[in-house]
Design a protein that fits this description.
The complex is a heterodimer.
Chain A (H helix, E strand, L loop, with lengths): L2 H7 L1 H20 L3 H4 L4 H33 L1 H29 L4 H11 L3 E9 L7 E4 L12 E3 L4 E8 L4 E5 L6 E6 L8 E6 L5 E5 L11 E4 L11 E9 L8 E6 L8 E5 L3 H29 L1
Antiparallel strand pairs in A: 1-2, 1-12, 2-5, 3-4, 3-12, 4-5, 6-7, 6-9, 7-8, 8-11, 9-10, 10-11
Helix pairs in contact in A: 1-2, 4-5, 6-7
Chain B lengths: L1 H17 L8 H11 L3 H17 L8 H19 L5 H25 L13 H45 L1
Helix pairs in contact in B: 1-2, 1-3, 2-3, 2-4, 2-5, 2-6, 3-4, 4-5, 5-6
Classes of the chains: A alpha+beta, B mainly alpha.
């Protein structure tokens, strides 16, 4: 009797075989070292690449239809103009933050030039074409991949602020882990780059808000303050807007333990995004240089102090 | 069935972009449950395995196999119900989809908890899990009626042959 007839008569055998096989596959995924290399994600990458053209066509069609509706029937040209002006305003806001930080860092000329170089990194515009298959996880698929120069860990932004980072890249598509996902973390600072000492890590919580764990609690935090990337994680360049402080949790205002951050980018309605093609070395470089300069300054001031004593 | 799975995978990742409520529909599970109604256990379980693998592949960060187990168990339950009830009507179909949806959601959430996903909304305590299960059942049931009508038209020949041959087998016994 063939295996197929046997299993048709008693499907429990096939069920048991499949369950054991699945457990084996899950165990392989969890093997230390293997998952760290990311080798097991080939299936995900190629499947994403295969589905991307259809998803792109759908996104384009839906975008065109809704664009026609909004532009011609709903608000005609005013909506387009409004969108453009809002995007421009958000861009100017980001520029303003960057410029004021640049001015404050003027003394550290070398580090500043490196940072500017990082900011001037080439960008790739991309369209969001799909979301995660599982509604509980926060990832999206964009229509640009390795062929456009997109690689793993490249930051993804909108004019309003940070979106997340690339976690998988296929030739024609890439998966972006949104900052609201609980597996996402970014080094952040509250307030101005050169002034604030409120360093911490912004982590996702699988809903609309993120949480920032504060490292130093000497300064006061106010709701509405801007949260920006600190550049210390080695993935995101310094100065990208993450969001605004919404609520301070777990303590008095002077010594907050955790801060609720509202992302600046419209993560629920993402359409067009930009991928910053910056390498880890470019991102981390200026920070390391700043730290080296700080150490050098400390080293220089120490002998002076000891001489005074 | 392979084409149906690919179409389901496409719908699974595309529709929730336009409306988050559509994310509650598990298109891949619905195809696997439909396969179980064709009364071929090998086809049903292999379809569920493929559906699970596709689901995990299209989800960022979940190890492949987690949703495979959930969908294989859910489909097996649906097959078991279909094989016990010879009659083929809307009530059986509703029972299958609802049962499979509950099993699928609970098994996958159990795995997510084991994988240390602590901030997922359905795992946040209170009635969140119950709400997620109920929403899943409601969404899948709503979509399953027109979808199965459509699939019946596509697989009509094969499905009827299968049911007829099973009825003949039972009569011979």
């Amino acid at each position: 009797m063939s295996f197929k007839i046997k299993t048709k008569k008693n499907p429990t055998v096939l069920l048991a075989i499949l369950l054991v096989a699945h457990m084996g596959v899950i165990s392989l995924n969890r093997v230390q070292g293997l998952s760290a290399r990311g080798d097991e994600r080939y299936a995900q990458v190629w499947l994403m690449a295969a589905l991307a053209p259809f998803q792109w066509a759908t996104a384009k069609t839906v975008g065109t239809i809704s664009g026609l509706w909004h532009n011609y029937f709903s608000l005609r040209d005013s909506r387009l103009e409004n969108d453009r002006l809002r995007a421009e305003l958000a861009e100017r806001g980001a520029d303003l933050t960057r410029i004021s930080d640049e001015l404050k860092l003027a003394g550290q000329a070398q580090a500043l030039s490196e940072w500017q170089a990082a900011q001037k990194a080439p960008t790739v515009a991309a369209r969001v074409i799909a979301r995660d298959a599982d509604q509980w996880f926060n990832t999206v698929v964009i229509d640009r991949g390795t062929l456009a120069g997109v690689a793993k860990d490249h930051p993804v932004v909108t004019p309003e602020g940070l979106v997340g980072r690339v976690v998988d890249a296929a030739p024609n598509a890439a998966r972006v882990l949104l900052m609201t996902d609980e597996r996402h973390g970014a080094g952040a600072i509250i307030g101005q780059l050169a002034e604030s000492r409120l360093l911490g890590v912004v982590e996702g919580r699988n809903h609309q808000l993120c949480e920032m764990k504060i490292v130093s609690t000497l300064e006061k935090v106010e709701p509405g303050e801007t949260v920006i990337t600190s550049g210390q994680d080695g993935i995101y360049p310094r100065g990208l807007i993450i969001g605004r402080v919404r609520r301070i949790e777990g303590g008095a205002e002077a010594s907050p333990l955790a801060v609720e951050v509202e992302p600046a980018a419209p993560l629920a309605k993402l359409d067009l995004v930009a991928v910053l093609k910056v390498s880890k070395a470019q991102t981390r470089g200026p920070v390391d240089q700043l730290l080296d300069q700080e150490k050098e300054r400390e080293r220089q001031t120490k002998p002076a102090r000891s001489r005074r004593r | 069935m392979a084409v149906c799975l690919l179409a389901a995978a496409f719908l699974q990742t595309t529709l929730s972009r336009y409306n988050p409520w559509l994310g509650y529909i598990d298109w891949l599970l619905l195809v696997a449950v439909y396969a179980s109604s064709l009364r071929d256990p090998v086809l049903a379980l292999l379809t569920a395995t493929a559906a699970g693998a596709l689901y995990d592949s299209l989800s960022g960060g979940v190890p492949i196999g987690v949703n495979g187990i959930a969908k294989v168990l859910a489909t097996y339950l649906a097959y078991w119900v279909s094989s016990k009830i010879v009659a083929e009507n809307l009530l059986v179909s509703i029972l299958n989809v609802a049962g499979a949806s509950v099993v699928n959601t609970l098994v996958s959430l159990a795995f997510y908890r084991m994988l240390k996903f602590t901030y997922l909304p359905p795992l946040s305590g209170g009635n969140a899990t119950l709400a997620a299960v109920a929403m899943g059942v409601l969404a899948n049931l709503t979509v399953s009626i027109p979808l199965y009508f459509l699939l019946d038209r596509v697989f009509k020949g094969g499905g009827l042959r299968s049911r007829r041959s099973e009825a003949m087998r039972m009569r011979r016994r």
